[in-house]
Q: What sequence folds into this?
């Protein structure tokens, strides 16, 4: 999991704390060992041959230490079985000297740095010191050669082994937590059971060894067989642990390892923040391979697998030391980039990865052009736990894909899946499924012909009174619903309600046109038109009374996709209106070729035109342009008489806005119409007519 560069050192920002700790542990160990040294008068006088045999076995055993049960912990030295026996028989000083010799021998063989060997020696010295303190409670020298341990003595030996394990584990856990960051408790708990079994069997073999020496020192080498068994067990457990965190195909970290790594970074950032009061960040990126599915489908899974391995290696080579690359499954990878200070750094790191993926992969002489899309979430800005960061990086990745970009940083605006939004959508679906509910209804806003002041139509506008959240902003709601199946239900409901309403008004002697807003996605299939035709037939309403509004941005993004539906509507006699005109990018060609009847100038320009000469100029040029293309022009957002007069002067055909009326429930329209007086043209302020702004 950690870069090999860290095997013999610590990350720069943790160096001070980690090496400070190593120094303190070494100093404390020296402080207890040095006073004890005079006690060591050469080789113990009791059974020196047995002592030498155990000492040699300890040093030899450590030439092949047991692999650590957990990925990050230090190795287990099998010598402790012999040195613990030495502790029981000859005491602390004898044990420490042999243990230190064994540690030094294995450090030389494994090319450990001196600080590491010193720490291991010190860690054992302290563990032996604590165990020796427990044994002091034993009366006499029951374990010494010739002594006879009773049940109590064996109990004390067990307690000493327990204390040895505890002290050793606390020292190692602290070193691991300081060196790699992450939670101390998690580092302690990690693989504690496996560790206890491995180390425990070594320590408890020691009293057995003591008993064996009583019978004959020749029996001692036989202990090597159980030691080999414990070694094998430790190795298997270590491999199992590694496998549980590795993706078998690419040999990268898997999702579990990623979760642990992210958890460690979160704790480390929090700890650093508590020290220096600054925000510490890291980035989690999700990368999805573009077009991988086609390779898999066309060339088979074997080629797909080889492609994934190649891609995994490229990503791994492209990221700096200290970054973790994981495979989440399928063609999805994740990268944890620590020490990211700002968004630019994160983007640059992601672009570097995208760069290496843009180079085609050659497999079996075939050139595969893949590439990838990367989503970035930054801790803590975009989430402070693993799940949130992962979800947000995923949202950003889909955003990058949707926009055709290689890299995107998470932005809440593009997150259509936030829990709030999902629950809102679920509520809207329920409200729409229940046709008796009055939660969802449509308000109607009149449209007035500027030349005559006559009301020529209305626009149907969605209103949803959520039972707990009150009135929901329709614009925001449509943005969320547009990416879900709820949009289709909503549009079908507008069609039903509006055509039904037109029939009701007609029955009351009111004939006028009603405009329906449709999302461009609704027009990808002909379903909306089928429903419209069905309703028009059912209520016997002529198609000329219905108009469809489509926003400019959405329509112009991909006009060809909906052309067939637009032509069908046109043939049917349903007029098409380009809504929010001026906010998207219409090409002249499309404006000319699409079967449009009118453009609606976006209210953002109309609202400002009385005060802002730029807005005024923009509105005028849009009116001229529409006139040249023979399109009717509707201005929305007309709030005052000055704006109205400017629009009349500019040649605008129809106006809609609060100056005339706010959107209102259908059954209020008749009374509003009865009170409505067309405004005086141009010169006279509208003082002598009923102002009906506040009808709704
Ligand atoms: P839109 O289609 O451009 O609708 C015009 C918006 O301008 C409406 O906002 C209307 O209330 C507002 N408006 C009208 N006159 C004035 C005015 O004088 N001043 C100001 N400041 N605003 C004015 P609303 O009702 O909030 O609707 C917002 C948007 O939500 C609509 O913009 C439309 O894009 C969408 N929408 C509403 N109902 C539906 C629907 O049933 N289906 C779909 N697909 N979209 C809808
Ligand atoms: Mg509209
Ligand atoms: Mg509009």
A:
């Amino acid at each position: 999991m950690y870069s090999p560069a860290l095997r013999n050192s610590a990350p720069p920002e943790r160096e001070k704390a980690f090496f400070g700790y190593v120094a303190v542990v070494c100093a404390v160990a020296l402080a207890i060992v040095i006073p004890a040294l005079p006690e060591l008068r050469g080789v113990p006088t009791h059974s020196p041959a047995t002592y030498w045999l155990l000492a040699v076995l300890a040093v030899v055993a450590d030439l092949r230490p047991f692999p650590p049960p957990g990925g990050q912990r230090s190795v287990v030295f099998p010598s402790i079985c012999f040195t613990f026996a030495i502790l029981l028989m000859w005491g602390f000083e004898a044990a420490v000297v042999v243990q230190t010799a064994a540690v030094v021998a294995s450090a030389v063989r494994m090319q450990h740095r001196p600080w590491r060997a010193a720490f291991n020696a010190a860690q054992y010295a302290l563990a032996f010191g604590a165990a020796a303190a427990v044994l002091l409670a034993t009366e006499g020298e029951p374990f010494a050669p010739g002594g006879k341990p009773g049940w109590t003595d064996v109990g004390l030996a067990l307690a000493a082994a327990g204390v040895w394990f505890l002290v050793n584990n606390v020292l190692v856990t602290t070193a691991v937590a300081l060196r790699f960051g992450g939670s101390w408790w998690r580092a302690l708990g990690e693989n504690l059971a496996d560790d206890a079994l491995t180390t425990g069997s070594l320590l408890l073999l020691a009293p057995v060894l003591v008993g064996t020496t009583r019978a004959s020192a020749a029996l001692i080498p036989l202990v090597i067989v159980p030691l080999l068994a414990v070694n094998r067990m430790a190795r298997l457990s270590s491999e199992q642990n590694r496998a549980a965190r590795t993706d078998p195909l690419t040999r990268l970290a898997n999702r579990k390892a990623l979760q642990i790594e992210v958890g460690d970074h979160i704790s480390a950032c929090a700890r650093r923040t508590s020290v220096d009061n600054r925000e510490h960040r890291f980035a989690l990126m999700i990368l999805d391979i573009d077009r991988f599915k086609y390779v898999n489908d066309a060339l088979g899974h074997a080629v797909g697998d080889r492609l994934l391995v190649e891609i995994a290696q490229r990503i791994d080579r492209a990221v700096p030391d200290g970054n973790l690359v994981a495979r989440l499954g399928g063609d999805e990878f994740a990268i944890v980039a620590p020490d990211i200070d700002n968004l630019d750094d994160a983007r640059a790191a992601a672009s570097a990865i995208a760069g290496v993926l843009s180079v085609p992969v050659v497999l079996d002489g075939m050139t595969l052009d893949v590439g990838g899309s990367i989503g970035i979430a930054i801790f803590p800005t975009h989430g402070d736990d693993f799940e949130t960061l992962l979800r947000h990086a995923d949202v950003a990745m889909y955003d990058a894909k949707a926009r055709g970009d290689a890299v995107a940083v998470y932005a809440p605006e593009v997150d259509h899946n936030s829990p709030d939004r999902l629950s809102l959508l679920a509520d809207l679906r329920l409200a729409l499924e229940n046709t008796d509910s009055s939660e969802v209804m449509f308000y109607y806003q009149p449209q007035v012909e500027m030349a005559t002041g006559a009301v020529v139509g209305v626009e149907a506008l969605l209103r949803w009174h959520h039972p707990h959240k009150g009135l929901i902003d329709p614009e925001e709601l449509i943005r969320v619903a547009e990416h879900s199946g709820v949009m289709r239900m909503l549009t079908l409901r507008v069609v039903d309600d509006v055509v039904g309403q037109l029939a009701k008004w007609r029955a009351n002697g009111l004939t006028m046109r009603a405009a329906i807003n449709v999302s461009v996605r609704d027009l990808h299939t002909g379903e909306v038109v089928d429903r419209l035709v069905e309703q028009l037939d059912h209520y016997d309403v002529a198609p000329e009374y219905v108009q469809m509004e489509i926003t400019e941005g959405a329509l112009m993004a991909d006009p060809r996709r909906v052309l067939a539906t637009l032509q069908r509507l046109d043939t049917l006699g349903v007029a098409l209106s380009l809504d929010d005109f001026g906010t998207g990018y219409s090409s002249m060609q499309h404006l000319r070729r699409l079967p449009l009847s009118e453009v609606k100038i976006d209210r953002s320009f109309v609202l400002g035109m009385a005060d802002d000469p730029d807005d005024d100029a923009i509105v005028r040029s849009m009116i001229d342009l529409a006139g040249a293309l023979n399109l009717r022009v509707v201005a929305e957002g007309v709030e005052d008489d000055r704006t109205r007069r400017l629009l009349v002067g500019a040649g605008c055909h129809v106006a809609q806005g609060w100056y005339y009326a706010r959107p209102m429930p259908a059954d209020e329209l008749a009374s509003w119409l009865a009170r409505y007086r067309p405004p005086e043209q141009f010169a006279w302020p509208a003082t002598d007519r009923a102002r009906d702004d506040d009808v709704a």
User: Anything to note?
Assistant: The chain has three domains: 4-244, 255-414, 421-695. The domain at 4-244 is CATH 1.10.1760.20 (Arp2/3 complex 21 kDa subunit ARPC3). Residues 1-7, 682-696 have pLDDT under 50 and may be disordered.
